[in-house]
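Sample entry (510 residues):
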Amino acid sequence: MAQDSRQTVEIHPSRIKQRMPPCALVIFGGAGDLSHRKLLPALYNLSIDNELPEHVAVVGFSMEDLNDDSYRQFARSGIEQFSRRPLDESQWSRFAPLLHFVRGDFTDASTYNALRTRLAEIDQQAGTHENRVFYFAIPPSFIDTCSNGLKASGMIQPADVERAPFTRVVVEKPIGSDLASAREINARLARYFDESQIFRIDHYLGKETVENLLVLRFANSVFEPLWSSHFVDHVQITVAEQEGVGTRAAYYDHAGALRDMVQSHLLQVLCMIAMEAPRTTAADAVRDSKLDVLRSLKPLEGDEIGRFVVRGQYAEGVVAGEKVNAYRSEEHVAPDSTIETFVALRCFVENWRWAGVPFYLRTGKRMPKRASEIAIYFKSVPRILYNNPPRPPLEPNVLVLRIQPDEGLALNIISKLPGAEVRLAPVKVDFHYTTASPEAYETLLRDVILGDQTLFMRRDTIEAAWQFVQNILDAWAEAPSEPPLYPAGSWGPIESALMIAADGRAWRNP
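Predicted structure, serialized as C-alpha cells:
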C-alpha cells in the first residue's frame, strides 16, 4: 500500500499587485443566472480583498423590471447563496453602493442611448473616467445586436488612441458550435472591436492550479528538464463532473461534451502543459506559445477517430448514494438523444519536445466524484536493479496536479520500507494550498479591468481548437450512431478503458 507523506504549504500570489484603473463594468444580462451565481459574488469578493479600483461602478443591464435597490437585493441573494465567503454586513455596506441597474431591450436603439446617459451620470458621481468594460453574459445570438447598439450610440472607444478612455468587451463561451460559426462570431466582433479589446473568457483558465502550471514548469529547474518525451511516458487530463446536465439541458442537448468541454477547457489545459517557454510573460507571448501547441496537434482522421475517440452517455445509476435518472430522462432532453455526456480521446503533439508521447483526455458527467486533474506519468526505470524479475514491475513516478476541488499537487516516488529486508513501496508526497483560492471569475474579472489578456483566448487560438475538433464532429455527423451507455456513478463506458488499454496503459481514477 502506498505511504502518504502529506505536507501543507502556502502558495503566495505569483503576480505583483498592480494599480487598478477606474472603470464602469456593465453586465449585459446583469439579472441573469451567470450574474447571480458567479459574477456578482466574484465582484463582492474582489471588493473584500481590495482588488477593485478605488473608482468603480457595476451596472446591470437587462429587461427585468428592477431598479438600483432591487438589483442590490438580487446581488445580495446571490452572494448569500454562492459566494465563497459568507456575507458580512460591513463589507456589504461598502459594496452595495457600487451597484446600479438600467432596464432595457437589447434590440431597441433608444435603450443604448439611455444606458449612455446613465453611464455619463455615473462617471461624474463615481469618477470612472469613461473607462468601460462590457460583459456579454448573453446568448451568442445577441452579440452582434449588442455590439451594434454600443457602436451606434458612441460607447465604443477606438483602441489605438493614446490616453483615450478604454473600452473592453468580455465574451462568454461558447464561441460557436463548430469552426464555421466560431469564425463568424469572431468576424462579427472584429467589426466593432479591436482584438486587443476582446476578452474571450474561459473560467477554467482562471483556476489557481491551471494558472500555476506556468510557474511550476518555468520557475522550477527540477521539473523543466524532465518535461519532454525523453522522460515522460504519457499524460492524462481528467475533468470529471458528478452532477448531471441540470438547468443546462436545453443547451447541452445540442452541444455535448466534445463541444462543451474538450474544445475549450481540456485543449486549453493541454496547451499549458505542452507549450514551450514563452519569450516573456506578456499576454501575446504566452498565447503565441499556446497556439503553437494547437497547431502541432496531429489531426485525427479516418478510422483513427473510431479507434481513438470514445463517446458515451450516462444511463440511470447511483451517484453519492442517490439513484439518478438516465440522461434521456432529464427534463428538456430528447428521449432519443444521441448527444454524448462523456468523451475520451488520445492525441499527439507533433513537435520535438513531445514526439511519440500520447495525451489522453477524458471528461464526463455523472461520474463517481467531482475531480479535475492532470497526471504526468514518467517512464519506468530499466528492469536491472530493483525492478528486475521475479519482482513485479515498479509503479511509475507520477506527478498529479489537482485543479479541483482539492487544489494542489502530489508526486509518487518509490522508497524503501523500514526494516532489514529490501522492500520497496510507492510514497506520495502531497502538497495542498493552505488558504482558499480565489474563484476563477475573481481572477479573470480582475485581469479584464487591468487589461491583462494572458488567460483569455485569442481569435486564432479559438479557431485552431475548433479546427482540431471539427474532424471529429464531421465524422460523427457522417456516420451517426448511438453512444455507448455507462451507468451513472461509473468512470464512463468500457470502450474508454479498452481504448487506453490497447496502448498498455490504464486510466488513473482520482
